[in-house]
Structures are given as structure tokens and as C-alpha cells.
Amino acid sequence: MCVAAPGTVIAIEGSIAKVDYEGNIVNAHTGIIDVKVGDRVLVHAGMILQILSVSEAEEMELLFRELEEADG
Question: Which pTM does this prediction carry?
């Protein structure tokens, strides 16, 4: 199962953004989403789906940590 995950844009080159997931850096296509460095974004299957507010991103990150702890 694939899950969309929140991350932070740390660099952009053309239509590819480098997204940081708590130290894990991946490339994601920006598609039609106009992102800038520092934006919190939701990524699924290598595509940025949307820009998140800081509170939305923090809430999602907390939920992911809680799921990891429950599973671990």
C-alpha cells in the first residue's frame, strides 16, 4: 500500500523538487503545483500533490510517528 507523506522542499531544479522527510531526501515532480523552497508538501508516488499548511504537516507527521510507535 502506498501512502502520501508530508515533507519539506529543500531545493528545486526545473520541475523536480528535493523533498526532505526527516533526513531522507527524495526527488519529487512538481507537476502543476507551484512550490518554493521551504514549502511543506504532500507527496505520493514521486509527485507533489499539494502544499500543506504548517499545522497540517505537523499533524500528519505526528500521526505517522504514532503509527510507527504502535507498529514497532
Answer: 0.85
